[in-house]
Specification:
The chain is α+β, with helices and mostly antiparallel strands. The chain is about 45% helix and about 30% strand.
Length: about 150
């Protein structure tokens, strides 16, 4: 293969393809998260009927089983609170004691209330990761020289 005839050209080609694949992966995740964020437009009060502390590897996650009423119907859901998770079961239980009575709101899709969540945050971190990946990809595209173009 011509692009691997010189080690630097081969490395450039690998980095160009790798940065493009990573940028595409983060773009896909961003589109899914943006769709999820945008489709959950309405909110209503939720009632939590069961809390759970689950071991996830060496951390402990908290999940909530909740229900809410929309259009005269009762809808239920389960929400696992996002990371950072608790280091031990006692810390998770203490968090629950402190926050279990807090009022909660559920965000849902008005066209399909079964699609709901106790959280609705814009995916800023994923957006930044995606932009950084595209920046790296564009860097490799701009850094192309006539020699690397011949290799590709």
């Amino acid at each position: 293969m011509r692009c691997f005839s010189h080690p630097q050209k081969g490395l450039f080609f690998i980095l160009l393809v790798l940065s493009g694949v990573v940028a595409a992966y983060f773009s896909y995740r961003l589109v899914v998260d943006l769709w999820s964020y945008g489709s959950r437009k309405e909110s209503v009060g939720a009632r939590i009927f069961r809390w759970e502390v689950k071991a996830e590897g060496d951390r402990y996650a908290i999940s909530a089983h909740y229900f809410f009423e929309v259009m005269g119907m009762r809808w239920e859901g389960v929400y696992v609170f996002p990371k950072p998770w608790h280091l031990n079961e006692g810390a998770a239980a203490a968090y629950l004691e402190e926050h279990a009575k807090d009022p909660r709101f559920v965000w849902y899709n008005p066209k399909n209330p079964s699609f709901s969540s106790l959280d609705r945050e814009f995916p800023v971190g994923l957006l930044l990761k995606t932009l950084i990946c595209y920046g790296v990809f564009c860097y490799f595209l701009i850094r192309r020289t006539p020699e690397t173009l011949q290799a590709l």
